[in-house]
Amino acid sequence: MRNNSSFLRLRRFRKLQFTPHAVLTTLGILFFLLLLLLPSPLFPYELAEKVQTFTLKNGIRLLVLERHLSPTVAIYIRYRAGAVDETDGKTGTAHLLEHMMFKGTRTIGTRNYAAEKKIMIRLERVGTALDREKAKGKAARSPLVARLTDQLTKLQKRQRRLILSNEIDRLYSENGAVGLNASTGQDLTTYQVSIPANRIELWARIEADRMVHPVFREFYTERDVVMEERRQRSESDPEGKLLESYLAAAFISHPYRRPILGWPSDMRYLDIAYMTKYFRDMHAPNNTVIAMVGDLQPSTALKIVEKYFSRIPAQKLASPPITEEPRQSGERRVEVIFDAEPQMILGYHKPPPPVFDDYLFDMIESILTKGRTSRLFKILVQEQGLAETIQASNGVPGSRYPNQFVIFATPRHPHTLGELEQAIDREIERLQREPISESELEKVKNQIRADFIRGLDSNAGLAGMLSYYEALLGDYRYLAEYTTTIDRITADDILQAARTYLTPENRTVATLTKKR
Amino acid sequence: MKQKFFHNPFRMIISLALIFGSIGIASAASPIALPDPNRIRYKPLSFEPPRTQRLRLENGLVLYILPDKELPLVKIKVVVRTGSMYDPAGREGLAELTAIMMKTGGIAGMSGNAVDETLESMAATFDTTVNRDSGILSFSVLKKDLDRGFDLFSRILTQPSFEEMKLTLAKDLKLEELRRIIDDPQKLAFREFGRLMHEGSPRGRVTTSASIRSIQRDDLLLCHKLFYHPENVMISISGDIDIPEAKLLIERYLGGWSSSERRPETPPLPRQQDGGIYFLTKDVPQSIAIFGWLAPAKRDAQFYPFKVLDFIVGSGGFRSRIFQEIRTHLGLAYSTGSFYKAKGDYGLFGAYALTKSASTVKVVSRIEKILREIGQKPVSTEELEGAKKAILNSFIFSFTSAEKIASQQLMIEYEDLSEDYLLTYRPKIEKVNAADIRDAAIGLSPERAILLIVGNEDVYREVASIFGKVSRIEATF
């Protein structure tokens, strides 16, 4: 057993994951896959043909793809709602809500909902009063805090006797589900699971219920869990810390500047009232995409989904105001002092998909860091020995709004961040000066084509991709069209994109340096 | 209390609540008759996984082949009886560097850079992993490039040249990785945990900058010679390839592969250590606590009860005891639970939590209590049956791809499990009862555990004052 495997195993238990990093990783993978659809025009066409789509009267969009390798089905539910839709002062709500969605419903996870409800009304009142007092900081009256804390604990104890804790997880587990998970991004919130093919009805029973009637039991302890999540992912983790500071500098007004987990002072006092409002506003059937991939008949899938989901009424969608990011007019630099070896993030503003220029950055990402023959790996890691790792990523931290193309890098001792930055600059300048050769363009396209095929290997991967594009862009067929667009890309397009966006005044640089 | 929820009175209350609830919410959503999720009836599932073909070439090479034509891809996995446990003292990291250098250091007649270019021009992927007691090379290539790709892969396997320049680079990158381990509390903790669990054995030695610096090209050549030969590896092939085609390919490119070398003796299995509390100081706001014990091997009869035990204690999702207590009930951790890592010849069991400094002692005590109880009180019928159902029902996910099935078959032979391992797996789980679990839990007392805590100075002082004998350790890199 190697450290790594334990580490991965540990990660498996982070069931309700999100993090700036997970999001990065997820988006990285998504873009990677998206890139993949390439010249083989046959497959995307087939995919578009094979996917059956349905729209329920209430607006839920259902995508079904049959695949009969094993009698299992992967199912993704995605809401077009994420951290960007939170109001300032309440950051972390979308993510905490995602945790709370595992706490059951009025009919799952309770011995007596009516009795529970009475307690919960009082619990919320006491909890709110306690938060209000604690938020006063030094001016908080400690006897009052003590009294309220005592009341809260007693109410929690009383409610606990009525709760069947973690019942959703138990139902899924005992029925053989694997990969039960959820994630919150800036753009979307996702609930996913893979289940034996004969048990789809259980999924529908649970999900349709919690889409309308989740019960936020165990709220205050879960809020503490999320604080631990932040300690783990950001406060103890140099990468997490650096990314948080980077995004807060790269965006000055758009909500992409805020961490998905939330700012600590918001997180400590998140409340049920706002969470409920956010839930009601955003978790509408007409804001929902379901993708099912595996051993199932589309007609059967539709029947079950209709039976459970069709009576949820459509609703008017709230559209909270989103502040636009003004054009950047000069380089921004930010430093994080941390007890860790140095690393850096460097990135540029750019448009999101489906704008043509976004495709160009998918290409640039591969040209710079995909594989051992990519430019930055070859020159910075192999030839000059300046870097330990280097990774470009298009589409950070989300893709519903104009976003960032970023490069993460760690220098190799004794080389400095300054040397590393200069070397990256030289390669960016080269992109702006010389058109990429035909053979390099062809190589990147080849890699993309193969990796796309690899991405089709699992039900979960497919369900994830289909639901992602359907929810993000309103049409999963973006995947099919993607190939023709990539085909059209020329060396000159890449040159122009590099000249337009990869400029010093459009850039943010964040460095992490060691505590002295 | 928890066990009672299947009792009828509660069920009646639930259905009453349901009716009540539905009326109450009629305006928000039309009432739908939601069935009791515990009583949905499911059609039986029948499935026979495809059969993998086993072949043995004259030179002793064992192959498992499973065609699957869905995608135009061929995947090849080579499992090697190597691992860090064979690294000579003072040369720790050798097995890993050897595998990395096979990938990057060139082959007879072709430089490392040229190999990179060729592999990437055909968009093949090649990954290497070296564990404590095995090594895995995974190669994936498009069907259209199969012959050219496999030719190259076979030469990487049999004739690596280990270029000096690439060795310098690989060592430098490894040194940088070592320099950065301390920045990642989880990596750091699990590295030290693995070392402590295998203390006194070659299995417990860790790679350090000194050991990396002392590795020379000749060491790699010898390591390759000792471990990479037909009788010491097994290969699985899956994807868009027929069995005769696979056989032909392997015979053409690996049929002449031979070696008179024999790998060194396998180091003895780890022995149960005396329990002890170890503390590693790192100035972080969140501590990591990991408990560890030796546990049954896959070949032991107790493997099956232990699987169920692990599920109940901490790996069975949110309802498992540690998760339920530490995370859901107390809100004291985001990551917490247990793990059971069983191999053919031995196993490890561990329990862990990541919690803020101030709650470290409390969390450690609660986990200790859970582990003490599992060996003292019989598990409830509900917990036992729930865990068994989960393990049995999810078994189908072991067969979701040809690659998974082929490498699973290979691993059964590699780990020397009985041929009917998969066939008997479910019945053996089904048979597990509460008494079996208690027997399996006998060794799991907290006093016999290796407990590692990584945390700051304040945590150390508190841990030392409450738990008594705590040994401070320092990590060497």
- What is the CATH T-level topology of the largest domain in chain A? Cytochrome Bc1 Complex, Chain A, domain 1
CATH topology of the largest domain in chain B: Cytochrome Bc1 Complex, Chain A, domain 1
How many independent structural domains of chain A? 3
**CATH A-level architecture of the largest domain in chain A:** 2-Layer Sandwich
Largest sheet of chain A: 7 strands, mixed
Superfamily at the CATH H level of the largest domain in chain B? Answer: Metalloenzyme, LuxS/M16 peptidase-like
Extract low-pLDDT stretches of chain A. 1-42
The CATH H-level superfamily of the largest domain in chain A is: Metalloenzyme, LuxS/M16 peptidase-like
Shape of chain A: globular
Task: Provide an overview of this structure.
The complex is a heterodimer of chains A (516) and B (477). Chain A has 516 residues and is of the alpha+beta class. Chain A folds into three domains: 17-109 and 164-309, 2-Layer Sandwich (Cytochrome Bc1 Complex, Chain A, domain 1); 111-162; 332-514, Metalloenzyme, LuxS/M16 peptidase-like (Cytochrome Bc1 Complex, Chain A, domain 1, 2-Layer Sandwich), CATH 3.30.830.10. Chain A has 20 helices and twelve strands. Chain A has helices at residues 3-12, 20-36, 42-50, 93-100, 113-134, 142-160, 167-174, 200-212, 219-235, 238-250, 264-268, 272-282, 298-309, 356-369, 375-383, 417-433, 438-455, 459-473, 478-488, 491-501, and strands spanning 16-17, 52-55, 61-66, 72-79, 178-184, 189-196, 288-294, 332-338, 343-350, 387-396, 403-411, 507-514. In chain A, the strands form two sheets. A seven-stranded mixed β-sheet of chain A has the order 1-5-6-4-7-3-2, sandwiched between helices. In chain A, β10 and β11 (403-411) form a beta hairpin. Chain A is globular, with a radius of gyration of 24 Å. Mean pLDDT of chain A is 90; it is low at 1-42. Chain B has 477 residues and is of the alpha+beta class. Chain B has three domains: 1-41, no CATH class; 53-254, Metalloenzyme, LuxS/M16 peptidase-like (Cytochrome Bc1 Complex, Chain A, domain 1, 2-Layer Sandwich); 276-397 and 430-473, Cytochrome Bc1 Complex, Chain A, domain 1 (2-Layer Sandwich), CATH 3.30.830. Chain B has helices spanning 8-24, 94-104, 112-121, 146-158, 164-181, 185-197, 209-213, 217-227, 243-254, 303-315, 321-329, 360-376, 381-394, 402-414, 421-431, 434-440, 457-467, and strands at residues 53-56, 62-67, 73-80, 125-130, 135-142, 233-239, 276-281, 286-295, 336-342, 347-356, 450-455, 470-473. In chain B, the strands form two sheets. Chain B has a six-stranded mixed β-sheet with strand order 1-2-6-3-5-4, sandwiched between helices. A six-stranded mixed β-sheet of chain B has the order 9-10-8-11-7-12, sandwiched between helices. Chain B is globular, with a radius of gyration of 26 Å.
